[in-house]
């Protein structure tokens, strides 16, 4: 239990956070997001990976090769950060860079066979971490929770 969680629990075990705060979806999402990030970052660090590695490898596997700009758009990783992520993945032979035949000034990034194996390993690690994160929910509730989050995110992505 984290210090923040412990501070929220008095000796009798009942939450001491005011109900008006516990009813605010924005606050709950923010707190859950912080806990989720910590769990995922620590779990991936144990296998010498980062969440951006997973995002790039998943994008390449699911959508095929792409430029750095395309990968930035697919993953939400800033273009300025993408070079560093790709350097890390290339150093580990998880991706391959090749000049774009249509524009020699840019590279096309492709997932390597080793990258595909690593992605499968990361899928398993993340499955286990999500089981831990969503432990209180039944499988049906987990599916519904993800569907609701996706709907909210899609709505706000369209309106921004």
Which labels suit this protein?
160 residues; 3-stranded antiparallel β-sheet
What does this entry look like structurally?
With 160 residues, the chain is mainly alpha-helical. 66% of the residues lie in helices and 11% in strands. It has helices at residues 3-7, 19-22, 25-45, 51-63, 68-75, 79-91, 113-133, 139-159, and strands at residues 66-67, 95-100, 103-111. The protein has a 3-stranded antiparallel sheet. Helix 3 crosses helix 7, helix 4 (51-63) crosses helix 7 and helix 5 crosses helix 6. The two termini are 36 Å apart. The model has no long low-confidence stretch (mean pLDDT 91).
Are there runs of 5+ residues with pLDDT below 50, and where? none
Mean pLDDT: 91
Topology, number of strands: 3
SS-based structural class?
mainly alpha
Summed up, the helix count is: 8
Task: Tell me roughly what share of residues is in helical segments.
Answer: 55-70%
Measured distance between first and last alpha carbons: 36 Å
How much of the sequence lies in strands comes to: 5-15%
Strand arrangement across the biggest beta sheet: 1-3-2
Q: For the report, how would you describe the main beta sheet?
A: 3 strands, antiparallel
Radius of gyration: 19 Å
How would the global form be characterised? elongated
* SSE order, one letter for each helix or strand: HHHHEHHEEHH
């Amino acid at each position: 239990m984290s210090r923040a969680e412990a501070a929220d629990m008095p000796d009798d075990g009942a939450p001491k956070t005011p109900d008006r705060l516990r009813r605010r979806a924005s606050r709950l999402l923010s707190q859950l997001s912080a806990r989720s990030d910590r769990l995922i970052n620590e779990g991936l660090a144990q296998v010498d990976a980062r969440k951006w590695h997973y995002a790039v490898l998943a994008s390449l596997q699911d959508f095929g090769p792409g430029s750095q700009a395309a990968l930035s758009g697919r993953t939400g990783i800033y273009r300025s950060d993408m070079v560093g992520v790709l350097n890390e993945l290339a150093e580990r032979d998880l991706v391959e860079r090749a000049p774009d035949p249509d524009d020699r000034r840019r590279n096309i990034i492709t997932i390597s066979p080793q990258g595909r194996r690593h992605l499968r390993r990361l899928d398993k690690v993340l499955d286990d971490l999500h089981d831990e994160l969503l432990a209180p929910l039944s499988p049906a509730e987990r599916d519904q929770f993800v569907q609701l989050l996706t709907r909210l995110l899609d709505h706000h992505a369209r309106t921004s």
